[in-house]
Amino acid sequence: MREIVVCGEGLVDLVPSGDGPLAALTPALGGGPYNVAITLGRLGSAVSLCSRLSTDSYGEALTGALRGAGVNLSLLQRGPEPTTLALTSIGTDGSAQYSFYLQGTADRLVEDPGPLPGTVGALAFGTLSMVLEPGASTYEKLLRRSHAEGRLTLLDPNIRSDVIDDPDGYRRRFAGWLPDVDIVKVSDDDAAWLAQGQEGTGPAEWLKAGVGAVLITRGGDGLTAMTADFTVDVEAPDVSVVDTIGAGDTICGAVLHWLGVHRMLDPGHMRSMSRNDWSGALGFAAKAAAVTVSRPGADPPWASELYSD
């Protein structure tokens, strides 16, 4: 199985453990890319995290969990800067909203890892790491270089609008990434935000710009895969939702794992996938995400929880 490199931040979510504005906060390990790497490791993929984590106690906890999930740490950088914190609020429907504490934190100071091993078949990028400088420019260069080298690239913008100082500038930058991206994964809310003030902008236009497939998460309404030739919809399993933290990240990781298992972890094979192929990939991802939303925090499933039957 070819290796997958996930690029981006690891942070700590501070999740309320009760009701009311002064409810006690429980720290939980998170960050979009971090959750993708944990998902891949738990499912059994060969995966590395390219990031910079603090040497503080939270950074040690993040690193320990990566190691416990089987994530390769050879591309992981460490530094004395503090860990990014995300203050999380949970809605009545289980949806999560975030406020971030990220000035001078370790993850945004990541450095270029240099040439990647020939065993690397795919890279995944997203969330805060594609917004906060100077790390965002570092990851952008790695995205473009990896695509030029023939590796599959996945981008999940995972919009956190509160940390985007120049929304229109970010939308233009996102459009500039598209020729170097094979898979874009967005929530329906992400797609709507990216289209604001950009008439004629959306998944169909992203495909015309060179993207091979657009994956859209629709919460309880399921998942959609759009290609230039067809659209596939998969329903979400019926599950009692505790919260949705990490659900989209689980989907990213599960789709990449499915591609690896089915020997489609390269741009050519991915772009030749049939309706049935995408239905299988999305069905697996939906099953994985159903486990994540059934328990608090970003807690993706282990392989044994999905393959036990």
Give a quick summary of the entry:
The chain is 35% helix and 23% strand. The protein is built from 10 helices and 13 strands. Helix 1 packs across helix 7 (247-261).
The tally of beta strands, per DSSP, is 13
Estimated helix fraction:
25-40%
Task: Count the DSSP helices.
Answer: 10
**N-to-C SSE string, H for helix and E for strand:** EEEHEHEEEEHEHEHHEEEHHHH
Termini distance? 23 Å
Shape designation: globular
Strand proportion: 15-25%
Return the average pLDDT rounded to an integer.
93
Class by SSE composition: alpha/beta
The largest sheet, given as strand count, sense and whether it forms a barrel, is: 9 strands, mixed
How much is the radius of gyration in Å?
18 Å
Note the main attributes of this structure.
single chain, 35% helix, alpha/beta, globular, 309 residues
Task: Give an overview of the whole structure.
- By secondary structure, the chain is α/β, with parallel strands linked by helices.
- The chain has helices spanning 32-43, 57-68, 135-148, 167-177, 188-195, 203-208, 247-261, 267-271, 275-293, 303-307; strands at 3-7, 11-16, 25-30, 47-54, 76-79, 85-90, 96-101, 120-126, 152-156, 183-187, 213-217, 223-226, 231-234.
- Strands 5-4-1-8-9-10-11-12-13 form a nine-stranded mixed β-sheet, sandwiched between helices. A four-stranded mixed β-sheet has the order 3-2-6-7.
- Strand 9 (152-156), helix 4 (167-177) and strand 10 (183-187) form a beta-alpha-beta unit.
- It is globular.
- It starts with a strand and ends with a helix.
- The mean pLDDT is 93.
